[in-house]
Amino acid sequence: MLTSFNIPNILITLLVLVIIISVVFLVVKSTRK
Q1: What sections of the protein cross the membrane (predicted)?
Q2: Where are the alpha helices (DSSP H) in 1-33?
């Protein structure tokens, strides 16, 4: 039960991390120009 509940949580965390990284990358890219 715990493992099946943990898998979606990890996916959500990864998704949030990817979104944050892409936003930071875009901000850095726009400020460097």
Answers
A1: 6-28
A2: 2-32
